[in-house]
Amino acid sequence: MDNYLPCDVVEINSLENLSTWDTICVIESVPPILSCVFEEHRSFDKAFDSEVTCFKDPKTNIRIVSAPLGELDDFDDVRVYARASEKAISRAIKAGGKAVILVLPEAINTSGRFQYSALQTILGALHELYVPIQLREDVPDQKQRIEKLGVYHSNAGFLKKVVDDSLQFERGRFAARDIGGGDPERMAPPKVATYVENLFAKTNIKLTIISDLAVIQKDFPLFEAVNRAASSVARHNGRIIYLEYEAPQNAKKTVILVGKGVCYDTGGADIKAGGIMAGMSRDKCGAAFVGGFMKYVSETAPQHTNVIGVMCMVRNSVGEECYVADEVVTARSGARVRVGNTDAEGRMCMADALCEMKQRALSMPDSHLFTIATLTGHAHLAVGVGYSIVMDNGPAREQGHGNELKKNGDLIGDPFEISTLQREDFSAHQSKILGEDVIQANNLPSSRTPRGHQTPAAFMMLASGLDKHGTNSSNPLKYSHLDIAGSAGDHPDTPTGSPLLAIAKTHLI
Ligand SMILES: [Zn+2]
């Protein structure tokens, strides 16, 4: 079996022989052989088209799970298919299903808001079937929730294409779920490095891992400040992981992704008190996305696009070595940064890598730089669960990047909201003290700070020197900051791997 899928996935384009299957899940389209039994249940149960039901088909003796979409209106999007599919699979497992067929929507839409309904139906099932890495490793008996998933559509050509697409996405999301969901010890920085080494062994991805403290001190001083407390414990020591994919033919564009990988965020000296620390092992989901996205890149091998991922893996620990507010640290860019709050560590751990990538971007074709992070509680509060936020700099905005990403995200079921960087975001981080250029953060939680999810993007531009690459500069560089605090999947939900679908659709497909 594929190590990065939750079970075997089988394409089925006939329901004639069901002898090796025990359950059929129906979301929207009812296969002709089941139409009588569906009519019977519909006439008997008024809630049949709005509730999940499970029953036996007397003709085939097979278990049926019906998870209808219900009534849809203007404010529903294609994710309704994934949600219905998750419910169907969950019910099938509760009923004892081990060999489950999922029936895809029969209509093949090539335009409109539901054109990715079949893809979302499959991805919803795979999301539900995911088993956390620690359970797979510790209790091998439980490493799969079912033995196999069949995916049914009457058109074999369409079926093959949508299953192939879904599995490519899912292998990336699976790796992102493993890295993002592992606990603070299982997915501490050195272990993330080992996981990624296995993930990309003998592939088209070049891997470089920095673990040498002297190199980190010299080249990544802001990252080093965060890592200082953790680095005294070998198994928590930070790693900077580079994943590079070079297009086989002459590259026309370059996508560079820098992810926040805070494997555990205690807040540091500004400790997260009062019960708000739990769940902070998910603060590495930006870097987890980068790892998962590179898995997708590795599988799909884009012909004309270079992709570089940087995973900034660090633990924000507390101890006698921990960095504190008021320290002034000279960033890789030369900017002198005054620490305001040690809980604003995400921007610190990415800014030097962003500075390094900014230099590299200048010599690559049509570069677009990204930071991706579960950066602020403010983002979560502003857009809620299930939505990522994009903030473009001038050159990215000029190309309409945010609008394009939003349009694609809405279509493929990985939605974005657009936020706009304003003058005030930069003013908020400008120091007024001689000898200090940038203030890292104020000392309120982001959720109590005006523009709390926008200003960190301005900080990263100032601290990395990207502010000198605007539309009027001699070397404009596109840069977008993505805050995924609302979309990455908080404990106890399964990590989502977002925004893999939207970024892939916008930049690779
Ligand atoms: Zn923090």
Automatic annotation (TrEMBL):
PANTHER family: DIPEPTIDASE B, ISOFORM A, LEUCINE AMINOPEPTIDASE-RELATED. The gene is lap-2. Belongs to the peptidase M17 family. Residues 341-348 form the Cytosol aminopeptidase domain. The lineage of its organism: Eukaryota, Metazoa, Ecdysozoa, Arthropoda, Hexapoda. Keywords: Aminopeptidase, Hydrolase, Protease. SUPFAM superfamilies: Zn-dependent exopeptidases. It comes from Pseudolycoriella hygida. Signal peptide: none annotated. One of its GO terms (biological process) is proteolysis. This is Aminopeptidase W07G4.4. The keyword Acetylation does not apply. GO terms for cellular component: cytoplasm. One of its GO terms (molecular function) is manganese ion binding. It comes from the Eukaryota. Pfam families: Peptidase_M17.
